[in-house]
Amino acid sequence: MIAMHTSPIAQPGSGDAGGMNVYVLSIATQLARKGVDVDIFTRATRPSQGEIVEIEPHLRVINIVAGPFEGLSKEELPTQLAAFSGGMVQFIKCNNLFYDLIHSHYWLSGQVGWLLRDLWGIPFVHTAHTLAAVKNAYRAADDSPESEARRICEQQLSDNADVMVVNTEDEKRELIAHYDAQECHIDVITPGADTDLFTPGTDRNTERSRRELGIPLHTKVVAFVGRLQKFKGPEVLIRATAELFKRDPHRNLRVVICGGASGEASNVQSYHELARELGVTHRIRFLDARPPQELVAVYQAADIVAVPSYNESFGLVAMEAQATGTPVVAARVGGLPIAVDHNVTGLLIDGHDPATWADSLGELLDDDERRIAMGEEAVGHAAKFSWAASAQDLLKVYEEATKLDMSECHGPRQAAGI
Ligand code: UDP
What we know:
Residues 18-192 form the Glycosyltransferase subfamily 4-like N-terminal domain. InterPro entries: Glyco_trans_1 (IPR001296), Glyco_trans_4-like_N (IPR028098), Mycothiol_biosynthesis_MshA (IPR017814). Belongs to the glycosyltransferase group 1 family. MshA subfamily. It catalyses: 1D-myo-inositol 3-phosphate + UDP-N-acetyl-alpha-D-glucosamine = 1D-myo-inositol 2-acetamido-2-deoxy-alpha-D-glucopyranoside 3-phosphate + UDP + H(+). The chain contains 15 helices and 13 strands. The two termini are 18 Å apart. Helices cover 42% and strands 14% of the residues. Helix 3 links the parallel strand 4 and strand 5 (124-127). By secondary structure, it is of the alpha/beta class. Helix 3 runs parallel beside helix 5 (148-160) and helix 8 crosses helix 13 (354-366). The chain has a 6-stranded parallel beta sheet, with helices on both faces. It has a 4-stranded parallel beta sheet with strand order 4-5-6-7, with helices on both faces. The chain has helices at residues 19-33, 81-94, 106-120, 132-138, 148-160, 169-179, 203-213, 234-247, 267-277, 292-301, 316-323, 336-339, 354-366, 368-383, 387-401, and strands at 38-43, 52-56, 59-64, 102-105, 124-127, 163-166, 186-188, 220-225, 253-258, 284-287, 304-307, 328-331, 346-349. It has 2 domains: 19-192 and 387-401, Rossmann fold (3-Layer(aba) Sandwich); 203-383, Rossmann fold (3-Layer(aba) Sandwich). Uridine-5'-diphosphate binds at residues 12-13, 18-20, 22, 225-227, 258-259, 289-290, 292, 295, 314-317, 320.
């Protein structure tokens, strides 16, 4: 696997680390447990990382030095694609390795995967995770667009990958509509949630979680979890919170926003400022991004998890929250209508108007019976999505891909010297 721009073992929830990191690590772990040898190649960002990190039997992360460890933004990483590809080739040659298949994640890695596929004549599977054309179609009015250069690179991958793996049927439709992708080259693999880690808490878990987070026990809590950037819509929740307090200044509510800066450096500050401008600073607690083991407490402490994203290829946070028995109020975009069963495990909202969000959040906060029933349904719903099942489906895709005749359009394996 190739995950060039962000390591699968980086802390998700800030910077460029999010759902893709969780996806790659979770699915690779499950593949490894089925006996598949998986190496995940990523760009080294710290000298202390070492070249090879053994995660568990059959699974390694390989840190390839390509450019300086620090100081390059994701937007600048295209300058390191040649160095990264060269580093991968060198590592593979020196260690006398041979792979049956390449699976790249995100368009930067896709460009590397495409090159190596042609070099080695092995099948090339690509997962985009997000697509520039789709992000641009759904972005907030004041969010900056994804570059045309990225869209062009994604077009090349859609034209050249042997298989494109997407999260949902909706994403498949988007890939066909925006990139003219061939339907027969697309496979849908639904992501999962770690239901061993994200479990419903007992009342005592919830109490402990709230104490740890400094939230009064008899307060209603709405949580947002994820990278703090416009695309994830945290400002929608902040504005909806202000609207709820405008309607009822005595409402007993705390909002928890858990995640770190992502994209523009000023982002986190701008959310604090927005809360201040709207007079809800004391109603909102900002928490730093934390490892999944500590995130469980945030989900368990919440009465509702809000996912006001402008687009989500799936929305792992929605699934994880439900696995802990917390209903989700989410935007009706991307994969969220699959992740959330509307009116059963949560609510789906059209658009991002803070007043509409306040209506739905307020109604559900005030209806204990309905909310608790939704939380109970949510656990069963999340249980249907496991990473083990995703890996099983992916293995089938790999098996089909390895049957493809690679001799016609690509060079012979010998040419790679491995
Ligand atoms: N996450 C985390 N710690 C945090 C915030 C988020 O580990 O403080 C993880 C979260 O558990 C989820 C992922 O980051 O698995 C975010 O995935 P999602 O699909 O919701 O959003 P993306 O980052 O892909 O846009």
